[in-house]
Specification:
Helix content is 31%, strand content 23%. It is α/β, with parallel strands linked by helices. Helix 1 crosses helix 2 and helix 2 packs parallel to helix 3. Bound molecules: 6-phosphogluconic acid. The site of 6-phosphogluconic acid has 14 residues, from loops.
Length: 220
């Protein structure tokens, strides 16, 4: 595991934002996948405005099937943290349109992806659930690995979600997994020991994966 361990979430977030800027700065245009949840929020706040001069296509990695503006909406969190002043002129933002039914939202997302001419993500920010999920790929829920995005019902959350497929995550050129807090330590340890969690499978693909961990998640 290629891990960077930080004293606290703030130091981790600063390093993650710096890494994204450094990676994107070298590209004429960049397709960057953004996960939801709570861990990346501070990284997105620190990233705001730092890539305005690069042609970035931002891609939502997964979404809960809730209206935009709902407290659980990932895209609402991203708009508030990463684009407080609105989306920069040269940027595009591919999102799941949750006003559509889940399957339709996944198909519409794939249409946006293809219309943007994307083939793979240059960089993707991933989280890690306490159960080893990443994106909305959960250990106990089978999501067909065909196409770019799928809708999935997650029984334990009693919630529909839309997510990038495992293949898209594995094809990314550079993956950053951000994990903080003691609840992630068993998963990090499991991945190090070869456990087949979705977050492990997603990070074994082509390209590089860097894990950004605070001491608690690293089990220090
Ligand atoms: C989501 C995320 C999800 C997240 C993990 C970790 O929509 O919930 O994409 O995969 O990354 O659940 O969430 P935390 O960062 O809140 O621990």
């Amino acid at each position: 595991m290629n891990a960077r361990i930080f004293d606290d979430p703030e130091a981790l977030s600063r390093a993650a934002a710096r890494t994204i800027v450094q990676r994107a700065a070298g590209l004429p245009q960049a397709a960057i996948g953004l996960s939801g949840g709570s861990t990346p929020k501070r990284t997105y706040e620190l990233l705001a405005g730092r890539l305005d001069r690069i042609a970035v296509t931002w891609v939502v990695v997964d979404e809960r099937h809730v209206p935009e503006g709902h407290p659980r909406s990932n895209v609402s969190m991203m708009l508030a943290t990463l684009f407080p002043g609105g989306l920069p002129e040269a940027h595009r933002f591919i999102r799941f349109r949750t006003e559509l039914a889940p399957d339709d939202a996944a198909r519409d997302f794939e249409d946006q992806w293809r219309a943007a001419g994307l083939e793979r993500l240059d960089l993707v920010v991933l989280g890690c659930g306490d159960d080893g999920h990443t994106a909305s790929l959960f250990p106990e829920v089978d999501v067909p690995d065909e196409g770019v995005a799928r809708a999935v019902f997650v029984p334990k959350l009693e919630e529909w979600r839309m997510t990038l497929t495992m293949g898209v995550l594995r094809a990314a050129a550079f993956r950053m997994v951000l994990a903080t807090g003691p609840s992630k330590a068993p998963i990090v340890r499991g991945v190090r020991e070869g456990a087949r969690y979705p977050v492990a499978l997603a990070t074994e693909g082509e390209g590089e994966t860097w894990w950004f961990l605070d001491r608690a998640a690293a089990g220090d």
